[in-house]
Amino acid sequence: MLLLAAAFLVAFVLLLYMVSPLISPKPLALPGAHVVVTGGSSGIGKCVAIECYKQGAFITLVARNEDKLLQAKKEIEKYAINDKQVVLCISVDVSQDYNQVENVIKQAQEKLGPVDMLVNCAGMSVPGKFEELEVSTFEKLMSINYLGSVYPSRAVITTMKERRVGRIVFVSSQAGQLGLFGFTAYSPSKFAIRGLAEALQMEVKPYNVYVTVAYPPDTDTPGFAEENKMKPLETRLISETTSVCKPEQVAKQIVKDAIQGNFNSSIGSDGYMLSALTCGMAPVTSITEGLQQVVTMGLFRTIALFYLGSFDSIVRRCMMRSAKSEPEDKTA
């Protein structure tokens, strides 16, 4: 009886693997495609642009700093695979004025054709304890991290639906899957991206437009270096429990998942576990992906409880250390 059950299970899994490609989206061809990358002057955004350029895409870089844009353009152009490829630079703040964002996207499409893939990388982090952060910081991060993704996506979506082809990528964060000490302003702005992506995917999937949400871990970028200067001790110690990724590694995975039309893009074993734990009602690209989430949920939740326990322990130790130092400061 056990052998029969095992044989049935194996046959069922094999059937799922065979059926999955039939329901998965057709991969997007990057050669000749027009890819727009916001936040493309540095960090993950620049590496995403390089990865797409290596595969023959035409690139529009969008960022605020014009000097950094031109510097990034020169670096990206070194990876051309043919003499027809173009890197277009546009200096604009994607979080401030929708009409301005819409206009620059139209300019880019007039020069390089309709947008085939939009990668929303513009964002920033300001860590700090909840009561010590300025109220304006919460507004600023929601504007940059959330609206800075809404505006460019809104500007390209109509054309993508009309053409029945397109990819929209939102770069969230593992802090958009798990709320952590010191990220009371940052995490909500990244959680919001997940809600936007799920709702938008349901709207555009019938038009052969697919949404990808990337959840990179701590990544060695200029933004991460600035973030580290402001982190509370607790946040820094929690961050040190995982390794720091290279932006090239993160970008390569994001581009791969976006091409395939995968809704979720994660990095490493921790990323895979977090994505399975927080999948909720998120769409899946294949039946096997859903099956894997179902099978691993219990085990991953057990592991996650140990992680949460260690994070709570870090916070308590820091609080005790702070309490001991206060009397010494008063006597001094």
Question: What are its keywords?
Answer:
332 residues; alpha/beta
Which SSEs are present, and which pair or pack?
Layout: H1 2-23, E1 34-38, H2 43-54, E2 58-63, H3 66-77, E3 87-91, H4 98-112, E4 117-120, H5 135-163, E5 166-171, H6 186-204, E6 209-215, H7 222-230, H8 233-239, H9 247-260, E7 264-266, H10 268-277, H11 287-331
Parallel strand pairs: 1-2, 1-4, 2-3, 4-5, 5-6, 6-7
Helix pairs in contact: 2-3, 2-9, 4-5, 5-6, 8-11, 10-11
Could you explain the architecture of this structure?
The chain has 332 residues and is of the alpha/beta class. 58% of the residues lie in helices and 11% in strands. It contains 11 helices and 7 strands. It has a 7-stranded parallel β-sheet with strand order 3-2-1-4-5-6-7, sandwiched between helices. The longest helix has 45 residues. The chain is globular and about 65 Å long.
Question: Short summary of the structure?
Answer:
The chain contains eleven helices and seven strands.
N- to C-terminal distance: 76 Å
Global morphology = globular
Q: Uncertain spans, ≥5 residues at pLDDT below 50?
A: none
* Structural class by secondary-structure content: alpha/beta
Radius of gyration, in angstroms, nearest whole number: 22 Å
Q: Name the average pLDDT.
A: 92
User: H/E element string?
Assistant: HEHEHEHEHEHEHHHEHH
Oligomer description: single chain
Trace the largest sheet across and list its strands: 3-2-1-4-5-6-7
Total strand segments: 7
